[in-house]
Amino acid sequence: MAEPDVATRTRSSVITARAAATFDPEGRSVAAARAFVRDTLQGWGCSDVVDDAVVLTSELVTNAVIHAGTAADVRCLRTEQGVRVEVADRYPEREVPVQATGHSIGNLDSEHGRGLLLCAALASRWGVEYTPSYKQVWFQLDMPERPVGTRSAGPLLPTALLPTADDRVRVAVVQVDESATVEGWNEDAQALFGYTAEQTVGKPLSDFAAWPHTPGTSMGIVEALRLSRWEGSYGIRNADGRVIPVYASHLRVRDTQGEPSTVCLLVRDYERAVIQTPPRQAAKEANGENRTADPFEVFIGSPAPDDLDGLLQRTVERSRDMLEGDAAFLLLATDDETELEVRATTGLPSARQRFARVPVEAGAGRYGSARLPAVHDDLAALPGAVPLLTGTGMRSVVTVPLKVEGRLTGSLGVAAEAPGRYSNEQALRLQFAADRIALAVESARLGELERLRRGSLSFLVEASDLLAGTLDHNQTLALMSQMTVPTLATWCAVYTIADTSSEPELSFVLHEDEERIDGLKALLSRISPPEPVPTPGARLWTAPADAAHQSALRSSMRELTTGSSAAGSGVGPSLATAAAVGGETVVLPLVARNRVIGMLTLGKPSDDHFRQEILELAEDLSRRAALALDNARLYSERTAISQSLQRSLLPPELPVIPGVEVEVIYRAAGEGNEVGGDFYDLFPIKDGVYGFAIGDVCGTGPEAAAVTGLARHALRLLAREGLGGPAVLERLNAAILDEGARSRFLTLLYGELRPQEDGSALLNVVCAGHPLPLRLRQDGSVDPAAEPQTLLGVMDDLDLYEQTVTLDPGDVLLCVTDGVTERREGTRMLGDDGLAEVLATCTGLTAGAVAARILRAVERFAAAPASDDMAILALRVPEPQA
């Protein structure tokens, strides 16, 4: 593939890493390309853009290997700004859809250009390039800028793979006194910012700092320097007047005389990992007594908005410490602001409450104080005012709303076990802190939703590909479960419904802990399955949790009654199952072709809850899984019917012929076919007379098999009417021609076999256009046993005759179809002569051994699987026993 200039394509960006692979034009290459891109980008530490890159690669490689029908060249380039992925095919004549063709990429109803539409939606930049030998679509995904306080971790990399720094890392050390005047300025500070120590010492640090003032607060650099500890980003104006973004860590110290000062460590913003520290608990200084951290310090230097869980958890911990509470909690509002979802708690059973939802203002158990600050002196006097605290032993609580531009985004609360702990002043103090953190929380929440949405899209793309890759019913059930556990749920159960009159049947159970699967399956088998309701969406199902809790209670009572331990009495699995199943359980209907074909059940461990975004993703997956499951069911049913009908075309069993050995080998071409255009038969006509036939209908597959059935059954019927071989074939010829447009020509070898008293066998044979039967004598000679005549199904008038062949003891008659003689390897063909050479080596072998040797020779003649049906019939008259 001719490549354009790399520097031109990347717009002069410096390429720091690259990887490339080529994928063959076949369906499984799409999944292989996705895996290649995912592994490459994750190895480079570009996890922020992996999901988008996988989705776009899937679309573009599909266009290349499926639609264009050529190999796909995939190349990943790592640049300073992000990553670039290029997908090229070898079909430059295939143009990109444009408006003139009627398939604009902007037309959402079009079946063309979907990959380019995704590029336009997800990529920072994208384009198409042509050369005489290839067409290339590329897209660029820029890495997101890290806001103040971002904390991230990458994989452990070998030294050779670590990024190369432009220069040595410089850490500016600046020391300022109590009045924020510069006292010290090291050489790295001079190298970074261009000022010498003489130019800075004695001047306020604010003369050089570009401090990002927070709207609505008076927090400035002087206030920040007076805090005991502060980390974050701001700017320093260098000697040229440009602002250099820096990441700083400020630590307040005192000298031996007790004079305080602040040491500032500053690095370039993108080198923040050098001095960045992990989240810290709220500081308490010991000066004779503990004091609570200043409210300003509660949120300055908190984890960055893209670390939502860390930000929320740190917020509740700092809030609790700030008001000296026993517990704290933070809830986020849903998009419609009708419910609040528990996202972080401290001092409460958070594992049981996480992602639980409570209404804001309507009905029983409402969260009545969500929109305004509220203080409850004693929850015992107003039960249910704060549903999250019911049954926790908390008596007093202060709650404040989180608002962004007047819109409710959440609620923050601090609680204590004693009544009357909080006042309006403390509520205002907490509200002030909530106002400072609300925007960061909302930004992080939106970022999390966006990442989840893009990750969901990638997940569904791969799930659809896996589900479409199999038509096996059991494998589809297993894939459904493996895709949900542990990604969406802790455990999963799939119920299937055979038809409208059948009850749901438990078909598959999976738990993330394999040791829990048997206990979970036993528990679900004892309870009634969920109702097959076709209403879309997830609905709660309490039966598993109720049954698990009852089982745990019985186990505990048994232990108390018998005095034996759980391990010794066998109740351990029940208790373990109760903990594994005791959380929230939801049921999603599996609806395909307007019929409920089953239910997908997802569960969480004890008292855990699903978040709404996960349930929406599970609903999308259930729709795809339902269609895949129904397709597998239909395929299994049709395959079973097809195989049953095909088996009816084969002889039920071969008769035992006194004095003659018989062996038949049959192979039908095509996946799932048991019968094709080749056929055989061996049947008694009357006492001492047996008919045998081997034929080949034009073509393969079901159409040829239909003529096969006509020929085999007609032969038996006509032969038993007492007709000779030529008359049988002439009437069969007329029956084939009567089929009209469905008729197919047929080559047929038909004969009648009569064992003789002297140990030989007499055969009357008619060969109608079929490969000639070969006779192997005891001396190793091979010769044709009949002459060729006109095939059947072509003309009305046939002039057929039969020939008589005698098989002496030790002789073999070999009859084959052209799938044997026309076996090819390139330009070579086995042919009649090659078959005769193989048969000549079979002297003294039984009929079964002769047929097996012929088959082995045919299979070894070419490496590729046989493309034609094949039948082998061997008749041998054994030598008399000594």
UniProtKB/TrEMBL annotation:
Say if the entry is tagged with keyword Hydrolase: yes
* InterPro entries in the record: Bact_Sigma-Reg, GAF, GAF-like_dom_sf, HATPase_C_sf, HATPase_dom, PAS, PAS-like_dom_sf, PAS_fold
Enumerate the Gene Ontology biological process terms. regulation of DNA-templated transcription
- Residues annotated as coiled-coil are none
- By its UniProt entry, which SMART domains does this protein fall under? GAF, PP2C_SIG
Which keywords does this chain's UniProt record carry?
Hydrolase
A molecular function (GO) held by this record is:
phosphatase activity
Give the PAS domain ranges.
Answer: 173-203
Q: Name one Pfam family in it.
A: SpoIIE
- Protein name (database record): SpoIIE family protein phosphatase
Species assigned in the record:
Streptomyces montanisoli
Lineage runs:
Bacteria, Bacillati, Actinomycetota, Actinomycetes, Kitasatosporales
